[in-house]
Task: structure prediction
Amino acid sequence: MIIKNRLLIIFLLLALNSFGQEILMQNGTINSCSGVFLDSGGTTGAYSNNEDYVLTICPDSPGKKIELNFTEFNTQVNSDVVIIYNGDDITSPSLGVFSGSNSPGTISANNISNSSGCLTIRFFSSSTVNSTGWAANISCIMPCQTITSQLDSAIPAPNAEGFIRVCTNETITLTGSGNFEFDGTGATYE
Result:
């Protein structure tokens, strides 16, 4: 019984460690929908002076968008700066410039102009003082889909101007449908 309990405890500890992937600020691209994104100092220390890194975080499956939820944020005001871009490189539109205690909060890849679902983070630090940095939870979200509704038929039919003229208490029957960007499973309308 003691051996079974010890094996169970070891298994649980290993399982917890596998879900706590830490991604440190560095140059490169990572595909992940989970983990914690940290400054280059990780959980044990502050980032260094004279850093200049660009990291792109992309979803691990198509159609999803990266979301970062910053739970800690502290850099030197106006000297050590994080810029977050809505796309897979630094030529993408900026979602904001952050320094000091001005945390990004929760920030997501934008549906409209970003088909990759990636966020690119650039961090640069000055040659002098540094600070404790940041921690952000990484997740992926499914964006809302675009739904285009249409009128398929009407009784009575619309006139040449597109109006349906009826008298009081007269019945109108409208039949419609929708075009779904991704999937219309389970959709209803009235």
Q: What stands out?
A: The mean pLDDT is 86.
